[in-house]
Write the structure tokens for this entry.
Amino acid sequence: MKKLIALLLCLCLMAGIVPALAEENTRPGAMWINSGIYGTYEGRGEIRLQDDYAAAVNREWAETVSIHEGASNASARTEQTDNYNRAKLAVLKGEKKDDPDLTSLQNFYALLLDWDTRNETGLQPLKPYVEDLMSVSSTEEMTKYYSDPERNIFGTPMVEDELMYHPEDALINILNIKGMKMLVTNTDELKPGAEEGVDLTAKRLTADYMLKRLGYTDEEARAIFDNAKEFERKCQPWTEALIARYATGDFTDYIPIADFESRYKNLPLAAIYRALGFDVQGYVCTLSANMLDGFEANYTDENIEYIKAWTLVNTLLDFTRYFDRETYEAAAKFQEPVTGTGSVKSDDAYALEVMEAVVPTMLDQMYVNYCFNKEIKPQVTELTRMMIDAYRDMINEEDWLADETKAGAIEKLDNFKLYICYPDNLPDYGSVTIGTAEEGETVFSAIMKGRKFLNKVEATALTMKNDGTYWRYDNYYSTLTACYIAEENSINVYAGICGGDYYDPDWPLEKKLGGLCMVIGHEITHAFDTKGSQYDKNGNKKNWWTEEDRKSFQERVDKLTAFYSKLVPMPQVSDETYGEAGAMRIKSETIADLGSLKCLLSIAKKQENFDYDLFFRQLAINQKQARYEPAEKAYVATDTHPVEAYRCNIPLQNYDEFLETYHIEGSDGMYLAPEDRIRVW
Ligand SMILES: [Zn+2]
């Protein structure tokens, strides 16, 4: 049906009949399509650069690209991901070298793909762990189980954690316990007799399958899952308090360690973490203490059967990929209604996915040592410094800022920690040695080594300062990442993003600026967006603005959000706008795109014979996108970035250099009158 409407609409456009659009012509982007929707060019007539730049530049690519099976889109991002995955696989399958870490990774890869051995072993390795867990008969014993990494293969006391920044001194790390590992995502499912949704059903079927493979009867398996659910039902009042707090937007609790220890006594989280190697002190952070309070209140001997069942089910669900083929495929099949696609991957994709989860730091090092052109790092470092210099000039020229505010901004720029491509020094985390099958290694033993190592890395990082000596422990630099971290005041541009449509060392400056430098400038601008601008040079939340400048900043942001709220992100599909809520969600990313382009244009201006066309085209190519319509809808509804086509068109139409390059005038779709322009920087 929707296709039919879309088709009718394009026929109307082709015939020169523009229904309802004439009067809407005043809304921003009225002549654009969302060119990132897969298949959207079908039956469309010519699209001029002057009317819809992103659609015109990326048309040929979009009309010929294919989307991988099981994926929802293709883009510059997915293509570069394919590039580095191919490179990693070639090394993993390649010749052995005198490098113990590489040998470990190659052994791991071989073990993962040896399905014959894995099928023979089945779920056997799990049995002693499950028996051990099910023999627990009190919370005191349960606490011992959680505290022993040799017994508790899940690795934590059934919570998710990461490191956060100390609330008063961002140089210091603290432990953030994000919350319990929950089975139920919708608390309505906990009501007696309530139907279980697709997600919970998938979990039940998976756990049931694994439990029966482990020798439990139908009835026992059902009882274990019911008991696991019952534990969450007992915690429900606290979970609901947590949900209520989420709605307020203020849900992070920083609890001084002494308070934390007296608050969690039944469930001694601090002691358990210490036993697991974490030197917890200062503060512990939690995303709303309500949930941990519920765990604490229900951590009683009376509930021990429920706690055990809950621990077992969550542990099994975490290990579905690590045994035989039958379990992997069964779990993938149960997941299908949740993901919408089959989640069985090709062997190579599967192996990489597991290795990324279990030995990410080793994979990063392998990429840098064997796949990455080392000449790129000094080049990207130099380009980043050039952009920081241009940004400094740009700030100095902002006529709406007082000198005092300018000084605060420049102080931030001058104190950026630059994490470019890959770290030169690694902390002494040690490494993992993974042997061959002949040496007695199994997938399960390798996975356990990797998981323990990851815990050790995190525990080590907890004691380290964020002073720039080392990169953050979970910055995985062989992935496609660039980011600004406000709490570190760091610009991060990883090796994984330095290829494909983003970067080539042999490119002319124009393409480098339109590609990776646009990304770098975007990250720099995040230091001065609505969030970043509240943090100082050390990453502490501290005001460096005069009151008046802050007001002007807010007025500029308000004009920008008003503009975006009127945009229609999927005009071919519906005339629904981003609205106020949508504009609020994407505002930081739009500020970043606009600020970056301004900085790049100031660099371009200083070049001789700068090829603006080449530069602008590269910028559009980086935003090429072909996403299935349902996925695009979900993207529009949830992502913090605007749709890619608009990430290209809107920044460009705000600058005269672009309009002049293509002789764009008032009646052209890309034209934006000076009074309507929305630059924050
Ligand atoms: Zn961003």
